[in-house]
Amino acid sequence: MTEMVGALAYNVPFFSIFLALLAAIAAPLLPRASRAAERMTLAVILLVGAMSAHLLADLAATGRSFTFMMGHFPAPWGNELRAGPLEALLALVFCVSMGLSLLGNTGSTEEDISKERRYLYFVMINLLLSSLLALVYTNDIFTAYVFIEINTIAACAIVAAKDCSETIRAALRYLVMSLVGSGLVLISICLIYDLTGHLLMQHMHASIAELISAGRHTRSLTVSLVLMTVGLAIKSALYPFGSWLPDAHGNATNASSAILSGLVLKGHIFLIVKIFYRVFGTDAVRLLHIDSVLLIFGLAAMIMGSLNALRQTNLKRMIAWSSVAQVGYIFLGIGLNTAVGVAAACLHIIVHAIVKPMLFTAAGGLISASMHNKELHALKGAFYRNRWAGVGLISGVCSMIGIPTFAGFASKLSLALASFESPAILQGLLALALSTLLNALYYVPAAITILTPQAQAAPSLRAPKPAHSLSYSVAMTAFLALNFFLGLFYNPVMRVIERGLSVLG
Predict the structure, then answer these.
(1) What angle do CA 237, 443, 92 make, to 5 degrees?
(2) What is the pTM of this model?
(3) pLDDT tens per residue, range 474-485
(4) Any idea what DSSP says for residue 381?
(5) HEC assignment per residue over 170-224
(6) What separation, in Å, do the N-terminal and C-terminal C-alpha atoms of the chain show?
(7) How far apart are CA 358 and CA 56, in angstroms?
(8) Which helix H or strand E contains 460, and what residues bound it?
């Protein structure tokens, strides 16, 4: 196996998770008055990203996958990681998105979090990275649960890091909802273990296939799959379970909003895809009608998320409600339960992981240039006070609406094509058209507002413009480049996704 993928590539999944955990432990030991914890975190993200790129290059060409046996202990005592082209691609995207989110929001992080507590923020960021990588790579369902809990604690902590009444309330609400989701997932794992006697995914899959073919414990399997799906749907903010999201993402510090919206939701959604492919199998999911239920919730999320975004006057809350709608797009693809549908959903996961952090980073720059006022009326003419942020917001808006050459167009086109191959063709196309129209109705006025010069700027806004930090310019340039790359060259990315899905089950 090691000869097939190369010795370095074989160890990438384990060392990626291990390095992030080690950085979380090391951060408190570094000088707290300096920026050592932040620099170490960025270095770890860069290193893990480079290793993930190497793994992707190794696996994408052949479309093969491998299993890493922890400590060389076989089942049922051992623990396993599994890597294929799709897992390597997602790990790389997560590292790129998290690194750019931190880099682009360095200034706002320093403003929002006191120097004495800033190292704790990077402890949580490293824990968050390790948990996301574990959710991507794990082949053991109980290990997935452990890292779901680590992810929950770290995510709530970075919401509360801003230390104001709004973020504390939002973090507590997020924590309560996440714990409900965790409880459902844990009950589901107990039920599945009781029925199959296994925790490793491929062994569970074999046992579940035998039970279904024999017609035994069908009701218990249905209950366990429903509990697992609902638990992860709550954590993924699928409508109507996503009411906690706008407060958490809209009030957190800019880097936290970018990471939470771009990455944390996607880790749980990808775990649902793995559960469907590697534990129950897509045929069983179809037989138990879970895909149909997810399709309905996805369609509802696309419309209701957009309608709620349309009512917002606060820019960050508008972008946050837009995330609820975008999660609906992903569940539309998963609910179609076809190879092209799930591939389109995975492409939208990647697109949203890049574009939404760019939107939050741009929004932070525009708000900072407008006396930290998040209301849309206060952002009039903000484009001319922070042009990098203005270009980033407009580029993100074009992508979310689905303008050709931008990333969002590629994933929306893929979802539309996938709908043609499904019995739900009419529902899928109508929801895509209506949601795209609603996207335009709330995003275009926001873009026009920042582009409209103020007739008489307030004295504070006429002050000399602050110089852009180099890190902000670098991060925004990279976000813009990735937005265009995914919009123009999405076919190679789609081929990697399709190869990854073909070996995921």
Answers:
(1) 55
(2) 0.94
(3) 999 999 999 999
(4) T
(5) HHHHHHHHHHHHHHHHHHHHHHHHHHHCCCEHHHHHHHHHHHHHHCCCHHHHHHH
(6) 19
(7) 24
(8) none
